[in-house]
TrEMBL record:
Record key words, sorted: ATP-binding, Ligase, Nucleotide-binding, tRNA processing
Species of origin: Candidatus Proximibacter danicus
Keyword NADP: no
Protein's recorded name: tRNA(Ile)-lysidine synthetase
Cited InterPro entries: Rossmann-like_a/b/a_fold (IPR014729), TilS/TtcA_N (IPR011063), tRNA_Ile_lys_synt (IPR012094), tRNA_Ile_lys_synt_N (IPR012795)
Signal peptide annotation: none
All residue ranges annotated as the tRNA(Ile)-lysidine/2-thiocytidine synthase N-terminal domain in the record: 30-139
Pfam families given in the database record: ATP_bind_3 (PF01171)
Enzyme class: ligase
MF terms (GO), sorted A to Z: ATP binding; tRNA(Ile)-lysidine synthase activity
Reaction it catalyzes: cytidine(34) in tRNA(Ile2) + L-lysine + ATP = lysidine(34) in tRNA(Ile2) + AMP + diphosphate + H(+)
Enzyme nomenclature, EC number: 6.3.4.19
Length: 167
């Protein structure tokens, strides 16, 4: 049975490859922020497809994933296990970072979780960090080293992001 959609299907891997090709020096390392949600999973699959030598999209780069475990949901361990299983299946190295969310009273839960998540992303040892966001269906590619070179209060500011691919 065909899936009915409001929007026509897109070639996500093709769009990701076209976006990355002029920005990516061959041999660079891309790390995907992998939550286990459908957006980050789709981005990971697209990047895996971009690396496949038999693909007309073939780009040469190292690929890894980073999962931030907040422990805020009863499902948190399940999401982590799903990410581990997916990365094992796709042969993509995964690093899991366990974080403690503090400052909830001052910022609110979502803002505090976002802050610690982006602090974890800033520790990523890659040339590019690929993040998928469900809001406006965008994929964001940034250089995490720029996070490390700026004051901590600017680590999560989008002005340091180097590109946005709208899907």
């Amino acid at each position: 049975m065909a899936v009915t959609r409001n929007k026509p299907s897109i070639d996500l891997a093709g769009r990701v490859a076209a976006f990355l090709a002029p920005r990516l020096l061959q041999g660079r390392h891309v790390c995907v922020g992998l939550s286990g949600g459908r957006d980050s999973v789709a981005l990971l699959h697209a990047l895996v497809q971009c690396r496949q030598q038999a693909s007309p999209l073939a780009l040469s780069f190292e690929l890894s994933a980073l999962h931030v475990h907040h422990g805020l949901s009863a499902c948190a361990n399940g999401w982590m296990e799903f990410c581990q299983s997916l990365c094992n299946t796709l042969n993509v190295p995964l690093r899991v970072v366990h974080v403690t969310v503090s400052g909830v009273a001052d910022e609110g839960l979502e803002a505090a979780a976002r802050r610690v998540r982006y602090d974890a992303f800033a520790t990523c040892n890659a040339d590019w960090l690929a993040l998928a966001h469900h809001r406006d269906d965008q994929a964001v590619f940034c250089a995490p080293k720029s996070f490390l070179c700026c004051p901590p209060r600017f680590r999560t500011r989008r002005r340091h992001w180097h590109g946005r691919l709208r899907i």
